[in-house]
Automatic annotation (TrEMBL):
Domain 3-dehydroquinate synthase N-terminal intervals: 66-178
Gene (UniProt): aroB
Species of the source: Psychrobacter piechaudii
A GO MF term: nucleotide binding
Cofactor note: Binds 1 divalent metal cation per subunit. Can use either Co(2+) or Zn(2+).
Residues at which Zn(2+) binds: 183, 246, 263
Family indicated by similarity: Belongs to the sugar phosphate cyclases superfamily. Dehydroquinate synthase family.
HAMAP family, per the entry: DHQ_synthase (MF_00110)
Summary of the function given for this chain in its UniProt record: Catalyzes the conversion of 3-deoxy-D-arabino-heptulosonate 7-phosphate (DAHP) to dehydroquinate (DHQ).
Alphabetical list of NCBIfam families matching this protein: aroB
Protein name: 3-dehydroquinate synthase
Length: 358
């Protein structure tokens, strides 16, 4: 099985290649322009997939490697310096290609290093988690966290290609598979009610790693994301829909300490909060909120946030990148499968959602 999609952006178009099992080096080699390649990974993925990739590339390229510590808590200025240091120490030039081999943390950090080193060098995404295959590797959002806010420092920088090999998911811990499923469910809730029905029907196949069903889910999500990115690469409008559940979710991640709640877990609980507010607005029904909670639970995801003081949550929300002139803007559901970005909600309803879930 091999599927190809194309992402159209202002800088360039690039392919997303989805395979059931492939030689990673062979697939990415045609997209490497210069002689130098730097593969960035972490201590977990290193043991699983680095050696084969490096050996496969060594015949044609000078291959350097950077192995970061594993975890969201290392998605920081301090640890991205390890990539810059290696680029400098090895006299890398502008035609170096960076390869991100790993999940969304490695992908976001490598992408930002590529965006900023010498004001921009090429990079390739080899996402190895479900979350990174369906979401973070596509669309060019790159960056690192700040202690006071998620992804606060970053850049839009598109990869030269994305290679999603379903085989890499066979080694993924179940908790990480669930976390990725949160972003899969997100696409259904914001864009396609039929996809939600499909997910409800196929959740057990997905959770038991049926490669064919997984590849279909990955391809559908990548297509949704590619369509949105093609229309609004830099999030001046429609792209913000991809942030459904994230204003609430980022509060959880920041408040609890990066890495305690996985990004997908925080987004899952955040999507329930956004759904509850959508219900309070009179847009969706109690039954819709129940249905959303049920599909998240089927993916073994949390549906309740941890206890966070309402005022602290509101203060953290003020750091959200969607805030305009001090006004919090949220993604809410008009119906299941249709989302809107709005600042037009009563603050007391938002406070009620934040308070009720304590
Ligand atoms: N740029 C974007 O558009 C975007 C979109 C969504 C999320 N994100 C970011 O992505 C990050 C979350 O990504 P994630 O969920 O992939 O987390 P992650 O990168 O931390 O990976 C999850 C865990 O799985 C391990 N792992 C990775 N691949 C594996 C494999 N094949 N087998 C076994 N273990 C493996 C990792 O070492 C890690 O421990 C967050 O920082 C989030 O903010 C970015
Ligand atoms: O690609 C996007 O656009 C998204 O918002 C995808 C999100 O799933 C992802 O978590 C993203 O990193 C959040 O972006 P941020 O700008 O809210 O930090
Ligand atoms: Zn996300």
């Amino acid at each position: 099985m091999k599927a190809n999609l194309t992402v159209h952006t202002q800088s360039h178009d690039y392919p997303i290649v989805i395979t059931s099992q492939c030689d990673l080096a062979k697939e990415v080699a045609p997209y490497i322009k210069g002689k130098q390649v730097m593969v960035v990974t972490n201590t977990t993925v290193e043991k699983l997939y680095l050696q084969a990739l490096v050996e496969g590339l060594q015949a044609d390229f000078e291959v350097l490697t950077v192995v970061l510590p594993d975890g969201e808590q290392y998605k920081t200025q301090q640890y991205i310096d390890q990539i810059y240091d290696a680029l400098m120490d090895n006299h890398c030039s502008r035609d170096v290609t960076l390869i991100a081999l790993g999940g969304g943390v490695v992908g976001d950090m490598t992408g930002f290093a590529a965006a900023s080193f010498m004001r921009g060098v090429n990079f390739i995404q080899i996402p190895t988690t479900l979350l990174s295959q369906v979401d973070s590797s596509v669309g060019g959002k790159t960056g690192i966290n700040h202690p006071k806010g998620k992804n606060m420092i970053g850049a839009f920088w598109q990869p030269q290609m994305v290679l999603a090999d379903m085989h890499t998911l066979t080694t993924l811990p179940q908790r990480e598979l669930s976390a990725g499923m949160a972003e899969v469910i997100k696409y259904a809730l914001i864009m396609d009610a039929d996809f939600l029905t499909w997910l409800e029907d196929n959740m057990s196949a997905l959770m038991s790693l049926d490669k064919v069903v997984l590849a279909e889910a990955v391809a559908r999500c990548c297509q949704y994301k590619a369509d949105i990115v093609a229309q609004d690469e830099r999030e001046s409008g429609k792209r913000a829909l991809l942030n459904f559940g994230h204003t609430f979710g980022h509060v959880i991640e920041t408040h609890e300490g990066y890495g305690k709640w996985l990004h997908g877990e925080a987004v899952a609980a955040g999507m329930v909060q956004a759904a509850q507010l959508s219900q309070k607005m009179g847009w969706i029904s109690e039954a819709d909120v129940q249905r959303i909670s049920k599909v998240l639970q089927a993916a073994q995801l949390p549906i309740k946030p941890p206890a966070i003081d309402t005022q602290i949550a509101l203060d953290l929300m003020q750091h959200d990148k969607k805030v305009k002139s001090g006004q919090i803007r949220l993604i809410l559901l008009k119906s299941v499968g249709e989302a809107v970005v709005t600042a037009d909600f009563d603050q007391s309803l938002l406070e009620a959602v934040l308070t009720e879930t304590l």
